Amino acid sequence: MRELALHLLDIAENSVSAQAQNITIIVEEYTSRNRLRMSVEDDGAGMTPEMVARVVDPFVTSRSTRKVGLGLPFLKQAAEACNGFLQIHSTPAKGTQVEVEFQLDHIDRMPLGDLAGTFLSLLIANPSINWVFDYRVNENQFIFESAPIVKELEGIPLSEPAVLAFLREQLQTGVAEIPEPL
Fold it and tell me: Is the overall model pTM greater than 0.85, yes or no?
């Protein structure tokens, strides 16, 4: 994957597969510490300690469509190549948190990519999940939570053109209004 947003998409899709009802995605850029941190936290099925230890192995996957799972191993490798790390915390029947960190200005760090588009895709594909998207750059923050919007719409599909346009505008504007790190 060429963009970090696509890695977030992959991890979040794993959370959906784990039957999560609440998924929080946090992206933080801190110039004073020269760090980029991303995390995906869910309340899904969780994993045993043994599975957590094995999940960064490219030949371990829970998918039945292919025998390899490359998302987390590649992300771990990319983070470590950029003076960072990948950690997974999970408890069976309680959920999982995948946290990854990079040196913000490392020359080999992948670009963030289209965060707003990634968030929108996840929301539209899985409207029954309560999504929280939290994007921070230094002291500035944009938070988007889907549950209040879904409740207000009372059964109107998120894919309805006017709703979709509203959601796209909210996400694009929220992400764009956060100043880029210097």
Answer: yes
